Amino acid sequence: MTSSARRRQRLVATLRARGALHHAQVERAFLTVPREAFVPGLSLDVVYRDEAILTKVEDGVSVSSSSQPAIMALMLEQLDLFPGARVLEIGAGTGYNAALLREITGPSGEVVTVDIDPEVGGWADERLRSSGYGDVLVRCADGADGWPERAPYDRIELTVGADDIAPAWHEQLVDGGVLVIPLWVRTGQICLAFERRGDGFESCSAQPCGFIPLRGRMAAASHVAEVADGVVALVRDDHTAARARALLRLPLDSAPWDGHAWDGFSFFAGLWNLPVFSIWASIDGGAAFRGGGFALIDSERDSVALVASAPESSALRLLSFGSRAAAETLESAHRRWHVLGRPDIDQLSVTARPLPVAPEPAPYEIAVDTRRWRLLLSRHAGPLR
């Protein structure tokens, strides 16, 4: 057995242990496709960590990557693929995910992957061909248009974050087909598996995620901005970034935080219209925290608070810069979340109906409108608010 094959086995074992991998067909794909063929020049130890690998940066902003294997596995399972399926992928990246799709759909299936970036698409095409997956159709196009020449598709998967559902993705999907999309819902991104039902969609599953934003005609409003040395935030406007830069220079207070970084609270806080956003600090950047977390700004009272790991441990801290106003808002919302039974993202059901004919929300639903759709969110296990 080669070193690569042994590392693929260890990666699969890691994904299973983390609850990201359950299906035998997805496991076989990860055991078969060599990830190093799609991210050349890196050591096998780096290639087979359960981590995303950035592959292209423009003006200091990441525009393409090989996604974290755990989220790739979860999304492949959300797609519910089958031999012979016709699949459209939006966001070719390195080509690695398209190769996994090709392995699962088998010789009778078809995989089309599109990328708006000619350089990225060219890399993906070259690596797919040299790895034995030359029958994957790689095209340079705006993902908002899908790829109508090979439609209809049984499955459509986005490997980029979007804040709306393009009409083409609905039109090019068979009725009963599945769209898997990392979708912004107010301030949070969740990965939804939507089944097309007539003129709308019904969710099959939901999970947390974080993807590079879609580019092109339907580019997501959110973007990555540097807010301190070694610290970046995913914000929806430049004003938020500017306020964060100023407030993160204020005196700091630190307190323990009772929870987990990605336990669903930050998403539900955004769903309740609190202005939360994601934030990351590099390990060696000298920031007061490390890794990923979430933050909230109270501009009127010159305050920003964030929840993230302390530099010296994995314990979460509530960090307040300036007054404690923002921290108090987060603490109040956290108590509310506890009263509701600590709802999590995987408990959500989401229906998408086209505007302007979408229905009004029921008393147990929260409505979130995009440019083209009304999302109606409900929860299996109780109220959302």
Rg from Cα: 21 Å
Oligomeric description of these chains: single chain
Parts with pLDDT < 50 across at least 5 consecutive residues: none
Kindly, what is the distance between the CA atoms of the first and last residues, rounded to a whole number of angstroms? 54 Å
| Helix content class | 25-40%
Strand proportion: 25-35%
Question: Structural class of the secondary structure composition?
Answer: alpha+beta
Sum up the overall morphology in one term: globular
Provide the residue-averaged pLDDT.
Answer: 92
Biggest sheet architecture: 10 strands, mixed
Strands, total number? 19
Helix run count: 10
How would you spell out the order of helices and strands?
A: HHHEEHEHEHEEHEEEEEHEHEEEEHEEE
Main sheet: strand order: 5-4-3-6-7-8-9-17-19-18
Give an overview of the whole structure.
Strands 5-4-3-6-7-8-9-17-19-18 form a ten-stranded mixed β-sheet. The protein contains ten helices and 19 strands. Helix 1 runs antiparallel to helix 2 and helix 2 packs across helix 5 (96-105). The protein is globular and about 60 Å long. With 385 residues, the protein is α+β, with helices and mostly antiparallel strands. Strand 4 (110-115), helix 6 (118-130) and strand 5 (137-140) form a beta-alpha-beta unit. The mean pLDDT is 92.
